[in-house]
Each structure stands twice: as structure tokens, then as C-alpha cells.
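User: Okay, second chain of the day. Same drill as before: sequence in, C-alpha cells out.
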Amino acid sequence: AFLIDNSSYHPGWSAYMLSPAVQQSPLAQAFPWLVGRALPQHVLVNNWQNGWLIPPDTVPVQQTEYVFVFWPQYLEYIGLFILIPTFAFLIFPTKHARRVKRHLLDRIRK
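Assistant: Same drill. C-alpha cells below.
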């Protein structure tokens, strides 16, 4: 059996299978790789779609939920998480930076 996603193929996509017991976990949607089972075989379908082969030993029940993750998107979130404090540090100088600036201005004036 195949699981097909209508997004254009990219190797950064991953699919995770969430059992009914795990679906209620708050981590299930945001971090499915922590609680779900990865579908390992990512394939190209119809020459443009993402597809995953569901292993034959896996018997999905009707309530099984599948979550698609695009890893480059998580890297973007990490970059924003780093960028915002960096801008805050550059815009709002620390006490130490103000002291150094004041000290240098005092030396120049003398």
C-alpha cells in the first residue's frame, strides 16, 4: 500500500504514522518523530508527488493518523529562533556595552 501526498517531491519530506493511543499527545503534531513511527521508504509517485510505501508488517487501523513533515521548514524555525534574540541583542545594547562606550568617550574627551 502507498501513502501519497499531493506536494511536489522533495527529499526533505518525511511521513510518520501515529497510532490512536499517541494521537492525543501534545507532541504528536509538532514533533511526530518523537512519538510516531517513521515510514522509511520515500518514493517519487506520478513523476512529481511524494509517496511512502507502507511496510507490509504494518497493519494500519482506521483511526491511524499520518503526519507529513518538511524538514527544511523546521530549519527555518530554528533560524528564526536564533535571529530574534540576535536582533534584540544588537538593538538593545547591554549594560556592559554602554559602560564601555561611556569609558571610551571619556578617554577621547580628556
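The chain has four helices and six strands.

User: Thanks, on to the next one.
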